[in-house]
Amino acid sequence: MTQQKELGMKCIKYMLLCITAIFVLTSALTISVGTTIYAIYHDIYFFLSPNAFSPAIFVIAIGVIMLFVSLFGCIGALKESTCLVNIFAVILSIVFILEIAAAITAYSLRNEVSQFLDKKLREALPLYYQHGEAQDAFDFIQYELNCCGVDSYMDWHAVDPPTGGTGISFANLTVPDSCCAQSHMTVVGEETIVECHKIYANGCLPRVYYLVNQSAGLLGAGALTICFIQIIGIVFSFSLASSIRKAKIERERRRWEIQERMINAHTSLNPNNEKVAPVVYVPFQGQAGA
How many other C-beta atoms can be found within 10 angstroms of the C-beta atom of residue 254? Predict the structure, then answer.
């Protein structure tokens, strides 16, 4: 029976070590996903609210915490320390709650972000030639997302370009150079002339919204996936702590039995077969003579 308990504890210990190794990998993956989403949001930060960065920062922090917490599980499993394993399980439970909160926050911000994006893009469009930050932000999304304007390239009809400014004249309106989808370079003497033959017709709002929406969904799905792995880790951690506690109690009991046997063996060479000697009463000689 004792050997079965020892074998079961070893199985749980090695399973916890495997799960701890998985935690290290998922922690690195979580940090990479969080930093990637944060970098995407940072590229279009001009059109986003500050709350949009919260889930990404939250996921990065959770990944860093999990990376350090994995040390408790690994050291506790190797040294069979009930205290370390319990600390590992408790911290995992706290991180589990935080990840659920991060997933809920990421999904709940999707509707808020869509409304904020629509408002911010329409407000920033007239400021394109006046505000350098708005110009850089629009050029970035139009270059990278292959779009032009908010709903379509016709939105630039309401924006008057400055006198002598650069741009592409198309259908009685001027659009930024970032709206060019297909261009042709012609060398005339020492001068290179770039002519745009085609511009992007689709607006940027649906594409920016899709990018932010998919990023938030990826954060939420990643957090929920890690939560599932953490549930397994929590169960194995508490099971290992219970097994270690029972094994230590069993070892103490066996040590106590061995000590008792050694003490009994020291007081008598053969205590099991020893018989109690009878008590013999001898009369006093003086009384017998009387």
Answer: 11
Q: Within 10 A of 14 (CB to CB), how many other CB atoms are there?
A: 12
pTM: 0.67
Using DSSP's 3-state secondary structure scheme, residue 286 falls into helix
Give 289's pLDDT tier (boundaries 50, 70, 90).
Answer: very low
What is the C-alpha to C-alpha distance for residues 281 and 174, in angstroms, rounded to an integer?
Answer: 132
Q: Cα(236)–Cα(89) distance, rounded to whole angstroms?
A: 9
Q: Answer for the pair 142, 179: CB distance below 8 angstroms, yes or no.
A: yes
In angstroms, the CA 148 to CA 170 distance is 12
Smallest CA-to-CA distance from 229 within 135, 92, 126, 55 is with: 92
Which H/E stretch holds residue 192?
Answer: strand 191-199
Length of the chain: 290
Residue 24 amino acid letter:
V
